[in-house]
Amino acid sequence: MEKICFEPIGFIESPYKETKDMPIQGCFKPETEACCILKEEFTEGLLDLEGFSHAILIYYFHQTDKTTLVGQPFLEPVKHGIFAIRSPHRPNKIGFSIVKINIIENHKLYFSEVDVFDGTPVLDIKPFVKHFDERKNVNSGWVDKHFNGQKVPEQTILRKK
Question: Which of 23, 34, 98, 146 falls between 20 and 30 A from 46, CA-CA?
């Protein structure tokens, strides 16, 4: 198979310079705000995105050069396959976040529910569409046991090791 190359369309300005106090998913610190700054030539691509409440940001995990097929998630001491966790130490280092759109100004998308490092290269933005993206009767594998009774696990905020 041929090699696939991507060029970032922009980058994230985020308050997170290190893992300390960063949530494992943005929904666990919904008040935190950030900005996706697109290269100006992509500004027109934001047309009509303001009509959506949320967007899916697809990005490159630029802070790691480690790759593993088995890893330990933050929620438990048990190791799982890399495709059963959301670790950045993936073969292709691709991540995604569902974020709440706050405002769009020119080539800048301001959002909250942030779980991304400052300077993260953005590869794509897609609208979150409840009619397409919501699923019924969902099982979340090993993660389900950590949310019994809808409680939020203590390990939802990363701590510097």
Answer: 23
| Beta bridge pairs of residue 101 | 111
Is the distance from CB of 156 to CB of 87 less than 8 angstroms?
no
Place of tokens 């300077």: 119
pTM of the model: 0.86
Which residues touch 79 (CB under 8 Å, ≥6 apart)? 70, 71, 72
6, 85 contact by CB (below 8 A): no
**Helix, strand, or coil here: 120?**
coil
Amino acid at position 15, single letter: P
pLDDT single digits (tens) 6-43: 999 999 999 989 877 777 676 767 788 999 999 999 99
Q: Is the pLDDT of residue 158 over 60?
A: no
Query: What are the angstrom distances between the C-alpha of 48 and each of 38, 43, 156?
Result: 16, 11, 33
In whole angstroms, what is the distance from residue 60 CA to residue 51 CA? 26
Amino acid occupying residue 106? N
pLDDT of residue 161: 44
